[in-house]
Every structure is written in structure tokens, then in C-alpha cells.
Amino acid sequence: MGKLKLFALDAEDIEVVSAHLQDAVTRVGDIAWMPAQRRFVVIVNRFDWAEEGATRNPGHHRRRTGLHFERVRAVRRRGIRQDNPDAVLNLLAIRFEETDTPGGSVNLVFSGGAEIRLDVECLEAQLSDLGPAWSTESVPAHDSSKAQGKTPGEGA
After folding, report:
1. What is the pLDDT of residues 110-120, one digit of tens each?
2. Which residues, at least 6 apart from 55, have a Cβ–Cβ distance to it below 8 Å?
3. Alpha helices in 22-129 (DSSP H)
4. In angstroms, rounded to a whole number, what is the distance separating the alpha carbons of residues 88 and 78?
């Protein structure tokens, strides 16, 4: 599979982005809020779930991927220490809740109860792979009792 590039302008779009970023890992230092530009950016190493079923490229892969949100009014963090830029976060899901059409909040949910909430004027996000995939030995695993009826990549 080639480099992925997605845009999200509504809740359905962000669900697709979320599925592609499930189990992505990032460092706290790779997250930036730029209030003057009203932009929020995160660089992740995403697990390439789409490559899992590919027979032409067997094995497990990750890709360096950028995600940014525009028209961000405020950012709130919970359970994330800003004083440790090398701390690793595991992204579980991204959700959008429309509260004041077309605005609302985007929640980036990480393992361990950490969360980043973006208050947005409207949902406007872009995901772009930044380089080639590389092989990895580890595969994200989920407790099947919590993810009953879900396949890998659908969420826990």
C-alpha cells in the first residue's frame, strides 16, 4: 500500500482516521499546539493495519504519520505530563462530538486514561504518511473480553 492521505470534515470521516491511527504511538514531545495558527499537530508511528492482510508485503509494519487539526480554539490535556517530552503515548481512538454545529470537541484517547481534548470551530483534519513503512516484530494486542465482536483495528 502506498502512502496514506486522508481528510476529515465530519464525524464519519474522523472514524476512518481513528481506525487507521488505532495503536499509533507518539512521544509527548511530538505533540504541538500552535494557538496563533489555531492548529494542533501530532506526529505518530502508526501501526499499518491495512498492510496486515497484504500478501505482497508480509509481516508487520509501522509508518511515520502526521495528523493536524485546523480551527482549534482550545486544547486541554488530562493525564499527560508536559515535563517529560520522551514519554510515550499509545493512541486508542479519536472521537468527534458536535456541540455547536459545526463546532464541537475532538477527543484523542490514549491508553492509561490520558486524553487530549480539542475545542474546534469545525472539524477540519488531515492525516498524511510522511515516509515509507518499516518492519516491526510487535503487533498491538487487545483484551478480547473488552473488544468482543471487534476485529483488530476496530478498537477496544
Report:
1. 999 999 999 99
2. none
3. 49-52
4. 15
First to last CA, the chain: 25
pLDDT recorded at residue 144: 44
**What's 28's DSSP letter?**
G
Note every long-range contact of 108-111, with CB atoms under 8 Å and residues 24 or more positions apart, other chains counting. 108/42, 110/79, 110/80
For residue 1, pLDDT over 70 is answered with: no
For 22, other C-beta atoms within 10 Å of its C-beta total 22
d(CA 14, CA 123): 9
Pairing of β 125-129 and β 60-69: antiparallel
Q: Report yes or no: 127 and 67 within 8 Å, Cβ to Cβ.
A: yes
Q: Taking 90 as the threshold, does the pLDDT of residue 143 lie above it?
A: no
